[in-house]
């Protein structure tokens, strides 16, 4: 058992309407916090009523962006149980992200226990309507109360929970994506592989521009040559070209998605040819033009898999698979969501029950 002080709310909130949850707008009754100091290590783990956080105005995170986060979900099965999908992978990635930002790491098992403890407390908040889930947002920030830039001596780890709606309310609709040619998200040696707020701060401008032009998300190119495909917004990408399933390799500037990893494992099990390699934008547009691009999709916790129906590059539009979802995309979606919501057998031991 972990040392955890629990203070329950005296005023539990009313549960929201499950058909109108949206994403990340509603929060549960409780949150979890743990403090870190170089002297004491991680200490004072506590579950408290959901509330605002108080910070010194000089706090590191507010000035130098020392923040990393995770995104995962708790799913309710048809029999009413609550389960997590590969949570240890999120814990490991959190530590890798923290290491890159000079933030403290946490014992893996301890961190997993904290995640399970907060989900257990607010278990009733895991919605049961088809496609809904409880989004889990663990995050960590540097919290030294002075302005000098140096190694971080104080940090805070927090977990908040948000019931979220089905990503595909009106069925799976392929999205339109624009290849960004000005801004870059990350460079090798930078923080691209870390799940940190700063990467998102740098991507907002391009996202806004894309949205104005009618595209759902931005497809990033590598930051050095602006030639190789990297990833989409908050998703990794996969393309099926001439029978080969290609996903950009993890060069340091691509976020190592857990959905990406799971898709690769499933595809290999199914006997598909999967390559983690560099894919240039020229190879991709050529594949569209000569008809060898069969399917394209994004992978990530929020949407699971998201078919790409159109790519835009240098003001030219390229339609993928007639703008429809392809068979591999559909099969991955069915298999992963089947495992996550407990409708399909968990042959790979990916599920952890609460
Ligand atoms: C979180 C994230 C992903 C997807 O990772 P999953 O573990 O599959 O949810 C992809 N790209 C970026 C930039 C991300 O932040």
Tell me what you see in this structure:
It is a single chain. With 354 residues, the protein is an alpha+beta fold. The protein has eight helices and 18 strands. It has helices at residues 60-64, 87-100, 108-121, 197-201, 204-212, 258-269, 281-289, 327-340, and strands at residues 5-6, 30-37, 41-49, 67-69, 72-76, 82-85, 133-142, 154-164, 175-179, 217-221, 229-232, 236-241, 244-248, 273-277, 293-300, 304-313, 316-319, 351-353. The strands form two sheets. Strands 1, 2, 3, 4, 5, 6, 7, 8 and 18 form a nine-stranded mixed β-sheet that branches. Strands 9, 10, 11, 12, 13, 14, 15, 16 and 17 form a nine-stranded mixed β-sheet that branches. Helix 2 (87-100) crosses helix 3 (108-121). It is globular. The protein starts with a strand and ends with a strand. The site of pyridoxal-5'-phosphate has 14 residues, from helix 6 and strand 15.
